[in-house]
Write a structure and sequence with these properties.
- The protein is an alpha+beta fold and about 60 residues long.
- Helix content is about 35%, strand content about 35%.
- The chain has a four-stranded antiparallel β-sheet.
- Strand 2 and strand 3 form a beta hairpin.
Length: about 60
């Protein structure tokens, strides 16, 4: 299990954070996810690679920087 602390661009409100959390938490390989729009951070604990998680966040309309 890996833990990633990602900087994410484009989160402007609680709905943005909730969208990322909802989409990522639906994946059975993700143990936990916490998105914080105020600090533009997403913390993920998962067996997926960082690149796979980045792609999932990108698909939500946000950018991992």
């Amino acid at each position: 299990m890996n833990k990633y602390d990602l900087n994410v661009e484009g989160m402007k409100c609680i709905n943005c954070s909730n969208r990322i959390e909802k989409v990522l938490s639906e994946d059975k390989n993700i143990k936990s996810v916490k998105a914080d729009y105020k600090n533009n951070k997403v913390v993920v604990e998962s067996s997926l690679s960082k690149e796979e998680i980045k792609d999932m966040i990108d698909d939500c309309g946000f950018t991992v920087i």
